[in-house]
Every structure is written in structure tokens, then in C-alpha cells.
Amino acid sequence: MDQNELKRQVAKAALSFIDDDCILGVGTGSTVNCFIDALAQSGIRIEAAVSSSDESTRRLQDIGITVVDLNTAGPLDLYIDGADEFDANRYLIKGGGGALTREKIIAEAARRFVCIVDQSKKVKVLGKFPLPVEVIPMARGLVARKLVALGGQPELRENFTTDNGNLILDVHNLDLVDAAGMERKINNIPGVVCCGIFALRKADTVLVSSESGIQRF
Ligand code: 5RP
């Protein structure tokens, strides 16, 4: 089974978490795109969605779903999103698509965060995937030096601006054995908008697709 089929399967499995007429938080990425396609075909009626990116907003609107601002929606029952890595604690690295800040905001606002991934995203310790850090443009150099001091090797994501008008530093070789500790340290650097470690607000459920079906952690 190829990876796209695994993404489609886990996306479909996430539909069972949705209550009719809810306001649903929707993430960003290729797995979430499969989820939006599956939602369109499911016949499930939701009241509206809160979206983590301009791309997901466009896709949701294309299938007739109203997208509302988080301030209008208030607390959400459910947020569904993918990840670049997950571990046995349900800690995640996110931000491969550059939408990490809005993703973290929606995850925090949601009572339940269901993460949908295929088995290739599973790791023992986070950090093989370079950690995305969203940075205010004027602080790019300062933040990069601080990340080097923390043991990482930051690399500016070329030709990329986030939906919030900021830059992304992709940080290689950080030691993320203490993922929550590193999340706090990076959050504390002036100029950092958000880092892609989701440990302080981890996933509540991770759905993982593999050749042998869907597993739930
Ligand atoms: C976007 C994200 C995505 O969830 C993450 O990059 C996984 O994407 P994909 O489903 O395409 O593998 O965090 O910012």
C-alpha cells in the first residue's frame, strides 16, 4: 500500500470522531487534504470549521463548508490535524507545511486533538525531522544564534513566508529527549512566534495507518 493510500485510510478513520453540527478545527497538510476530501464524501454535516491555514480554508470552502474565525467559534470540541513526527508520549513535531502557529492555537482551543498520521511518522525520540520555528523577520539572526546555543543548526526555509507574514527556521540536530523543556526554552526566545514541538499541548489521540490497519494511541 503506498503512502497516499495510508493517508486516505487514516483520514477516513478520523471521521468517526466528528459529531454532527459541531464546529470543527481543521489542520493543514497532505493528510488533512485527504481528510477534507473524506469529509466531503461522508455526508456528515458540520456547522462550520476553524482552519489553520489559507490553503485548508480554500479547500474547506470549495466543499461548501463555512470557515469561521476562532474568536467567533470559541472553544472547540475537536481538532483534527497531521504531524511530521510522533512518539509514544503523543508528543509531536509539526510545521512541515509552515502552519504551526495557527495549528498550535487551534490545538490549545480544542477539547480533543486527534492527530492523523501514517506509520512513517513514528519515532522513538523526536528530532529526526528538522524542527520548524516561526520567527519575526527582524529577529531571524538573533533567534538563529540562540538556537545554535541550544545545540541546533538552524536553516532558513528558502522562499517561504507564513500565512502570518513571518519566516521559518528549520532546526537540525536538536536534542529533544526533554521535548517539553526544549519547547519552553524556544518559546522564551524573543522573536520566536511559535516552535513546532507539540509537547505542552500534545495530541489526545494519535490514529496511525499501516499495512495492518488503523491503530489508536
Ligand atoms: C503543517 C503540518 C502538517 O500537519 C505536517 O507537516 C504533516 O503534513 P503531511 O500530512 O503532508 O505529511 O504540521 O504545518
Unreliable sequence segments: none
Which cofactors or ions or other ligands sit in this model? ribulose-5-phosphate
How far apart the termini lie comes to: 22 Å
Helix content: 25-40%
Provide the residue-averaged pLDDT: 97
Question: Which geometry do the CA atoms define?
Answer: globular
Number of strands: 13
- The gyration radius over C-alpha positions equals 17 Å
* Estimated structural class: alpha/beta
Largest sheet: 6 strands, mixed
Order of helices and strands: HEHEHHEEEHEEHEEHEEEE
Number of helices: 7
Beta content comes to 25-35%
List keywords for this structure.
single chain; 217 residues; alpha/beta; 6-stranded mixed sheet; 4-stranded antiparallel sheet; 7 helices; 13 strands; 30% helix; globular; binds ribulose-5-phosphate
How would you sum up this structure, described in words?
With 217 residues, this protein is α/β, with parallel strands linked by helices. The protein contains seven helices and 13 strands. Helix 1 (3-13) crosses helix 2 (30-42). The two termini are 22 Å apart. Bound molecules: ribulose-5-phosphate (5RP). Residues 27-31, 81-84, 94-100, 103 line the site of ribulose-5-phosphate. Ribulose-5-phosphate binds at residues 27-31, 81-84, 94-100, 103.
Protein topology:
Elements: H1 3-13, E1 23-26, H2 30-42, E2 48-51, H3 54-62, H4 70-73, E3 76-81, E4 85-86, E5 92-93, H5 100-109, E6 110-118, E7 131-135, H6 140-149, E8 153-156, E9 167-172, H7 179-187, E10 192-195, E11 197-198, E12 205-210, E13 213-216
Helix pairs in contact: 1-2
The site of ribulose-5-phosphate (5RP) has 17 residues, from helix 2 and helix 5.
